[in-house]
Fold each of these.
Amino acid sequence: MATTKTPVDNGVNVQALLDAREALKKAPEAAQFQWRATCKWVYGTHSRSTIMRFFGLGQEQQHKTETSFSADHPEIFASEDKGITPVEYLLVGLASCLTAGVAAVAQNRGIQIRSIESKVEGKMDIRGILGVDSDVRNGYDDIKVTFTIDADASKEDIEALVAQSQKRSAVYDAITNPVNVTVEVA
Amino acid sequence: MATTKTPVDNGVNVQALLDAREALKKAPEAAQFQWRATCKWVYGTHSRSTIMRFFGLGQEQQHKTETSFSADHPEIFASEDKGITPVEYLLVGLASCLTAGVAAVAQNRGIQIRSIESKVEGKMDIRGILGVDSDVRNGYDDIKVTFTIDADASKEDIEALVAQSQKRSAVYDAITNPVNVTVEVA
């Protein structure tokens, strides 16, 4: 009996990514990207950041729409809670980067994904930012990401998807390894 | 002639933060926070992350409202651009953290802020994430933040505000120094 195999569709155009990889081997200057945000203080600890333009493939690029993001501190810090905290934005970036990677790697490996869910938990001792104890760091002590994935694959294959996503994740790298940041006043 | 001095009002309740600092000196366990996000894959490289609950001051806490954030890749990566990229969320976190810090430090130093604007630029060589060259890192090579601040203070005092904000910034620390991240499949 002939069986019909439905092609795997996770919605990731892997061929385009493989083509880009080949093209950038010969044109490393096109691989130099610059991502940008602008931020305006509103009042208190509330600010609004806007994302629209970036640079890549040798020219100015832009998103389809401009998006703005409020950040604030919660009420327990005597603030207005008009947005999530700055440190929570890191968790959004980390979870979304790893998730996109899992879908892309699965597409490349011919594994159909049905669902990917994750929870991210970041531990922080706020005695750091409050200046209580100089031995306590300001940022996260550690972050744990736990995935629950439903896919046409064994537990081992699913774990391998996650491991490969982690290996190629821009945000995972930026958080786990030092990034040079310079801050200036114009 | 008597002059009336308007009290500095940047909207930051510095007294509450100083009180918290004193209280946490005696109760370090209350300073242990856990920030959380949950993320669901939508399709392709598009995901949606949700932020609502966190833990701190010894108990479960929550934001006033639940907020969701879409992340995706742009059209030049053959994606749908249904949200900003995961790496751009790091820039939002960095800019908003430093901005809140400037307003808070200025309040503590009696400096009236009129405006704080910043632009953030993060350089990334995408040959890393595409696996073109294993010597190229996945994350940012470097990030530059440039502030433009209008305040009742000298250039030197404004630069000192920014330096102190940087010194106490949770996101600046998390990006410039290594954070331990563990990724698991449930």
Amino acid sequence: MDQAKVHSVDEQDYNIRTAKSSDHPRIISVMPNWWDGRDLRPLLPRLFLKHFCDTSFIIEKENELIGFLIGFLSQSIQDEAYIHFVGIHPDFRRKGLGKTLYRRFFNQCPNNGRTLVRACTSPINKDSIEFHQRMGFQIEPGDGQIDSIPVTLDYNCPGDHKVLFMKWL
Amino acid sequence: MDQAKVHSVDEQDYNIRTAKSSDHPRIISVMPNWWDGRDLRPLLPRLFLKHFCDTSFIIEKENELIGFLIGFLSQSIQDEAYIHFVGIHPDFRRKGLGKTLYRRFFNQCPNNGRTLVRACTSPINKDSIEFHQRMGFQIEPGDGQIDSIPVTLDYNCPGDHKVLFMKWL
């Protein structure tokens, strides 16, 4: 994987590295707090950290977990990569760390033959929608609209509508 | 992928094929009924059918969904493959269809350089534990025991203990 330096305002203050399977319990332990008590832990079973750790990234500061990105290279679609889950410690938001994680993920795509990155989010998550747009993602047209945002209805199951993002590298 | 014929008692009566992304809504729609009302749908977001469909398999009979296996080749561990989720229609159990799906998954492993297959289940699921043992899986030693079965405690999150299986091909 490409470990080239990514330039970001605060990057020198943090330890940014690829993930390890053993990071999983620590990620799980912070999730309820980082998501205001919402329990999203079922979305991140250990398999993601065991089998896709080499395209997933961790940010630490003085050994404390500050952020993580869980992504993988599509197995079925040879030119695509997918960002599944991203979290930043509430006290360290708005510092460019999400951008740093995404860039780290983008950087290892060309060496792996990936030209398209996909991600998705819930229509309620306006911060995430704006973040992806700032990062250059397009929203896929979908088959519905919520708050004027195009959504793909019933994406993961009935009632679970999603905003789908794609970005050509 | 290796599509070699797998010999199974009932196989000629069924259509067995690799999965497609468009199978996802149909799989999601049967899950509550196939699992006695338990809602396991969050464990199978659409990403598995989009990005790992070429190592996932579907059984149909007269166009009705009878069974499915969702599996993938580990990205981080080059010689491993993982079976994530398997379901068989309640009226078609105990006919060897689970075995057929597992063999189909095993058959495409050598061509992809995979010599070890892993899977896991909940300790409460005695049928699944017996099935994996009949299929030649070993249970990993773990760090606890439930009903005399070795389990790995807190595997996906605190309280979510799992029986971990491995099988060398």
Amino acid sequence: MDQTKLSLYTCLSPSLLHLYDISDSIVVIIDVLRATSTIATALHNGAKEVIPVSAVPECIRIGKEMCGITAGERDGKIADGLEYGNSPFEYPASFIAGKTLVLTTTNGTKLLHMAADNGAKQIITGSFPNISAVCDFLISANQPVMLACAAWKDRVNIEDTLFAGAVISRIKTHFSINCDASNLAETMYNDAKDNLYEFMKSKNASHYHRLSNYGLEEDIRYCLTNDNANVLCFYQDNKLVAK
Amino acid sequence: MDQTKLSLYTCLSPSLLHLYDISDSIVVIIDVLRATSTIATALHNGAKEVIPVSAVPECIRIGKEMCGITAGERDGKIADGLEYGNSPFEYPASFIAGKTLVLTTTNGTKLLHMAADNGAKQIITGSFPNISAVCDFLISANQPVMLACAAWKDRVNIEDTLFAGAVISRIKTHFSINCDASNLAETMYNDAKDNLYEFMKSKNASHYHRLSNYGLEEDIRYCLTNDNANVLCFYQDNKLVAK
């Protein structure tokens, strides 16, 4: 371990975030299926901004105020009162360019607000569709890093852990990593990297199970593919914007 | 997933235990380095009972009341006011047989009391030195299982996760496992199983790092070896006893 390098930690669940001091860190919010993948896609396709909100009524209210598109699902269906869902395929440039997307998700939004409340120095969102932008930024930023997995109702999940592992495998030589969760994530990623989709399927990952029951295999494949929406998603003034 | 089988879950940190209903479950407390390894060793070597306590003053008080041996470390040294440490090698049969050991540890004891407070149906402790006894019991008991890792100050650690994975690899056909943390643990164990010690070392596992700095490599090797103290450690009436 090189003490002269900046630290990198992985937090596998929002319920563990309080264990870490993130006041000097860039926090990467990871909600692979599908919040942060959809955020990257919308911003890459020219959305003006994405406003992440926790609850459906708030989504409706802010959607009206901002003349934005309201989106969000509950139990695999568009939530009552909202217009669109959580799939990245709903946000092509022809639809979303120049618009404000007000998106309500459960796990990812909760964690993002938690990181903001805990005083994170900077917050970005990470997903396979924008993994290179995330890694390039983390290498260049010269700040400690917290890879924060949104998990599923606070239970550790495979896909967010895999993304943390993928980032670590790319950038680890730039950081000092004294964090077993990071080792664990990278070990699993190395096992899975030849075919992330088949790995998820073979492990019967709980979220794979849920989404494939909704017929969303193509969403899963997209959300496990690198760099199809390679933009940095930066959180400032309660909004995510492309940088 | 076979819905007719009983469930098995893995909880990677005490901070996640509240996410699970353990009222019908056998909870396996896992604190590989070194609490649960030392507990198995003392009971295997004939200790009458092991009383796990959280704090040093309580350890001293109960030690006096029970005419027991007081043991516990803080920062790698025997805690002030106690007689012995946390190493399994301190408890050969010639010393511990017939005696009461009052043991204070931080992570493992905290989790054990948390599981008891949360209404666990049964509590046992698990470690590589007694892995076969644990697995045999879990297979025969016909109850849901929670593999509960003590972690390190609530941060996920490699060695407890490895033990959960080792148990899962042995007993998974008897259970329905819809739990990404269990898949993660088993995946890591499969990577590590040919040489757990070298895996810990190569990953620079944080606890390996701490203990090897105290010159405790032999403790680590023992605590990663199967069945040298193959006894079931059962928690009842605030004590751990051999069954």
Amino acid sequence: MFPAPDHPVELRELPLPELADGEALLAVECSEVCGTDVHLHRGRLAGVPYPLIPGHVAAGTLAKVRGDLRCVAGAPLQEGDRVTFLDVHRTCHRCWYCLVAKASTRCPERKVYGITYGAADGLCGGWSDYVHLLAGTRLIRLGNSTARDFLRGGCSLPTALHGLQRAQVQIGDSVLVLGIGPVGLSCIALARAAGAANVLAIGGPPNRVANALSMGADEVLVLSALPDDARARWVYERTHGRGADVVLEATGAPQAVVQAMRCARDAGRVVVIGQYTDHGEVAFNPHADLNKKHLDVLGCWGSDYSHFHRAVQVTGDARLGAPWRSLSVQEFALADAAAALAAVANGAVSKALLLP
Amino acid sequence: MFPAPDHPVELRELPLPELADGEALLAVECSEVCGTDVHLHRGRLAGVPYPLIPGHVAAGTLAKVRGDLRCVAGAPLQEGDRVTFLDVHRTCHRCWYCLVAKASTRCPERKVYGITYGAADGLCGGWSDYVHLLAGTRLIRLGNSTARDFLRGGCSLPTALHGLQRAQVQIGDSVLVLGIGPVGLSCIALARAAGAANVLAIGGPPNRVANALSMGADEVLVLSALPDDARARWVYERTHGRGADVVLEATGAPQAVVQAMRCARDAGRVVVIGQYTDHGEVAFNPHADLNKKHLDVLGCWGSDYSHFHRAVQVTGDARLGAPWRSLSVQEFALADAAAALAAVANGAVSKALLLP
Amino acid sequence: MFPAPDHPVELRELPLPELADGEALLAVECSEVCGTDVHLHRGRLAGVPYPLIPGHVAAGTLAKVRGDLRCVAGAPLQEGDRVTFLDVHRTCHRCWYCLVAKASTRCPERKVYGITYGAADGLCGGWSDYVHLLAGTRLIRLGNSTARDFLRGGCSLPTALHGLQRAQVQIGDSVLVLGIGPVGLSCIALARAAGAANVLAIGGPPNRVANALSMGADEVLVLSALPDDARARWVYERTHGRGADVVLEATGAPQAVVQAMRCARDAGRVVVIGQYTDHGEVAFNPHADLNKKHLDVLGCWGSDYSHFHRAVQVTGDARLGAPWRSLSVQEFALADAAAALAAVANGAVSKALLLP
Amino acid sequence: MFPAPDHPVELRELPLPELADGEALLAVECSEVCGTDVHLHRGRLAGVPYPLIPGHVAAGTLAKVRGDLRCVAGAPLQEGDRVTFLDVHRTCHRCWYCLVAKASTRCPERKVYGITYGAADGLCGGWSDYVHLLAGTRLIRLGNSTARDFLRGGCSLPTALHGLQRAQVQIGDSVLVLGIGPVGLSCIALARAAGAANVLAIGGPPNRVANALSMGADEVLVLSALPDDARARWVYERTHGRGADVVLEATGAPQAVVQAMRCARDAGRVVVIGQYTDHGEVAFNPHADLNKKHLDVLGCWGSDYSHFHRAVQVTGDARLGAPWRSLSVQEFALADAAAALAAVANGAVSKALLLP
């Protein structure tokens, strides 16, 4: 766990919880180390209740079930069932955002396992042998997906599915993905799955390029290979001089949002998925970059049950899930979480799986 | 006419044109002085072929018709018919933007009367007794609308209709309009017409506030009354602490685009209509202003035939057109165009009509 | 109450309930008699647990509150607060329809006060001095609306709001409403509120025509005045020979759905709101009525919290709510429920309010 | 050519046309025999100007060009260039449907090569050595596509692309295609390309099942294998008991439209593409099939330039075009057009190509 911001990762023994009605205990088979965990470790997110058991997404087997738990199909969930769960708990379904705006990812009651639930709340993170699944947690059967395969997509896949839903890619479109970390890689494969004819990617470091190509990118530009302006030209040369029909920003760098606007064609769409933490301001030109371009620029925050549901579908599907199964990821024992975290932090791997 | 950038307005006698097949001559009854004319006079737009006869929107009577001209209903247009015309001529309907993207306002062949047609092209501006309507110009019967009433909306009404189309206001929404010049005023009335329950406006100068209220704003904040941050608070206090469901930016000031994002509710919509000229860059925070807000930010450029068509419908409609008929505008003789231009430039009037 | 299908209405004394945590008791100020009540009385709906306390929509004052109840704005609800409630209770927010399809009106767990909750479930209908509001019922503050004014819209207003949301009326559109019962009347006013330039209605009986005009219809054709084919012609003559941009079907008669398709313009939209009970089949021509017309035909079932929320907003709004306040309705004492039901059943009134 | 309805196909020698400015002559490399040709041969379409040179879609090489012809990218077209053309000529771009409704497939001026242009208009059909391309015809470079590969999709591919655009398939959706003729087969491959996880098809005759599977269907039900009701059950068993998220009707049989509604899940989408000719009426239940299901039923008529443009992109794309290249089609010499027509009419082949 993370005892406090910028402190070394610790392994601790905690008691198993008493389950209340509607609760369950998940025996974790696989969880992941993602970029959010790196931010959490460094204390970059506001409102995090340290000490924290990280790992917002995990999958495994129901070790104990108390009461009547059901999947969305209405079938009862039982001990021994292989499941994952929506990391977002307690969107209230009774506030204005949930009920009128129908934007549950902006519900103020939203609680997230491994991020806004701390160790004081119990075993509420995936870097653990067991996760305490509180009442109301949405469970999803893994079906054809294995825990490992689902975690290869991990938290980035529902995030990317939400982004693609907003992007409305049409068959034959050109799609540019900025960033080739886990979210960018999932965006590449999903853009392909949605019918893009031409998928371009810009990102780094260079060791991730092979991943981007195996996920389905036609061409990848290493970020360091060209200066800013030349990158837009690189895109225009590959899109009939117009820019990409759709740009998916998945980098975390504020200037990438402006780059996304400049690389999109007039009357195209930009989906901003990568700005999960505050890295400050960036300047843009509202006339040239937005109004005259008649552009759609769409922020995309978090994901909801539907995106997790489809993520399980995708990773369990023989054809749709193939890109993620081909993705090289590194596996670590739970005891080596610190090493896994370091490998993600320094970019040595794009995704690390933790196996208890 | 404008002989050259920053030169005094001149009145010149020019010969009436010989009409080719498919052309017509419009006897102007009314044209307008808009903000674009102020920019044109000062030489702020690129690619303008001075000397220029300004006035991109005008209405009047067909003085001569050569060949078979028809309105969209297929009925022939004849001498004596009262019409206006789509100021945008020659969107090619054969380029990728016209035919595949279906974004004709981004057609590179686009020519605009009074802006990109100069005096060398003939009588191609509305500040004139006659306008030479070239073949392929889309003519619209005024129907129940008078030329004067149509010009009270003028170029700002189709622009605002396009903005409202992108905004998708729902019955009961709160709408914030930034800017209370002609486009902002039309946005206020249209937001009301589209079912908004609560229409707020921020703008200036103070002499326009009465106009904004008469167009249907519930409350108007004078721009100079509060500093930037306090303005957002003013909006939040009037929208249940959430921000407006829809924000329509119609100001011309880059910082208003950022203000628009900050005044919109999470998962709301911002339509950027006001950035028609390049006033430079502005800084924003992609994390806080866009991604985390799950916002739609939509640039909206120009207008097409459908917006002009509906503009004539609106101004001619007893109920929908009422706000524009109540709008105080100032009328000038064509010979006083310089005075009309000065009145618009210094904000003394929000709209000036020119009557030959 | 309705003791059984086709039995006389009875007035019975029932004990007040013990409230469990999260429950409340509503002192009814006003409820309504709607078409559904007529169907329920005649036993035309499947799965209704007679005996039944009818009245799915009601408004009044919270007489007792047990536990922490809150409105969507998060503010606590207290005894003495004036509220209405979403008649649909127990959409589960955990099934595939609620969570993946996001179509909660098709949730199989859905329970409706006064329809699928019977007297055995307690005081779960509005034709009563008190309604027992079960835990999880969504309460809405009446705000500027009075109970009577809200009930003038009643159940038909959220239904119509849902229909209008699907119809996507644009400013200047022509809208045809089929049916001038309560739902049709609300559709007329909402089409107007959404910016329609031309609102036509076809319906009967003749005594409702004045209502349709006062709600904002430009012209009303009495159903019996013209045969079927001539009615379509009547619409075409008023819509430039094209048919209406949007047709809202709100009749209950299967043949009206086909009429709606025939009265819509090519590439227009038809929203089917009126087929709440099964009146059998009707024949149409898929080539001529649907495919060649490039038509959108959209079924619209029930309403959710957002529609009730906006309904309260609309009826409480000085401007938007005006049509419903002008609507002539008849008020009955609770003891005269049988007379009220008869008046609705025979079309003497379009809407009857019940006042305990 | 077809001299008259129900007359034998004839081969005739006609003079090559004099080209006017803006016109071109296409040396046909490949054209096709589609279901429309069978209908035309039997005289089933209204308003066809016999004698007729059939073949609305064809591809080849520009043998002569007169004047300045350009592709959508603005590059000049020259003799020797390999092209196809949009079969729909003369959508007027000046009527209400073209300009306000933006529904050019419903333009009343629409003329179609090989269908509404007869032999009296010149060499205006593809079953010919040459096609006279009139001024204003939209030409599309074949690029990476060969004429034969493009014609394997032929007229059915743009039709299906239009249908898929309306269907808005999401990644992970289940899609049911009714009909496995050329349009149905293209729908299967496009549903797959758009991200469907599960593509089901129902159709016949049995010899086409292999085609449907090679295009990407997961399972195909032969129409004759099960009675009507049992077919819906077959779909429900394969879609978690809910019905398909999207149903694409591509059969021509009126009852298939009702079957489509019954096989779609609640709140799903049905796109009706197959009703190009009038086969009479069919009965449905508006309550059970449409309103209570909260269904979108969308007619889809014809195609426009954008669909042809994307069709060329798809067939020329290594990955997206693979299904069509794997499709077994039969090739005939122009002189054997009668045999080709017979083969299509009796279902022996699903698509016949004609090679001059």
